[in-house]
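Incident log, structure service

09:12 report received: a user says their structure output differs between two submissions of the same chain.
09:20 pulled the input from the user's history:
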Amino acid sequence: MREEIAKETTTEKTRKEGLKIRIYPDPVLKMPTTPVERFDEELSSFVDEMHRAMALREGVGLAAPQVGVSKKIAVIDYHDVFYVLINPRLLEREGEQEGEEGCLSFPGIYAAVKRPGRVKVAAQDVTGAERVYDVDGYTARAFLHEMDHLEGKLFIEHLSMLKRGIIRKKMHKRAIGENE
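09:34 re-ran on a clean worker, output below:
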């Protein structure tokens, strides 16, 4: 009986606060993900939970590893357009842009990152149907940032070794401070 109440309380808390965002240096962030094979109600609900967790934290994108799930799933919500990227594949890229990026797994950390200016990406939606997106500018940046997460790559890996080292050190200090 106590376990049922604890489970209900935990579930209710999750609904209010959303999924827990994993913070660097959590090892799940560096693990490559596996493809999604089952397109069912459970997947659809999980994508909804991801969207809610991202919105609660005022994020633009969120990848499944950031909530501890090593599956090829990412969501992006930018300018009132909601994208679901399941098993995404980069088809084309062109141009170059540089802009500031942040990440829910690196709270308060921002850095200028160079990325292609336009990308074409094929991905499945929650029903398994394939969609092709041709996006540019900030949306392209968001797609690539989230797709990097699905390969176990973090945005800081696009920075110089010096900048990357400074950010890693800062995040490790935070992690130690939280555990004391």
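09:41 both user submissions now match this output. Likely a transient worker issue. Closing.
09:42 reviewer note: The radius of gyration is 17 Å. Residues 1-14 have pLDDT under 50 and may be disordered.
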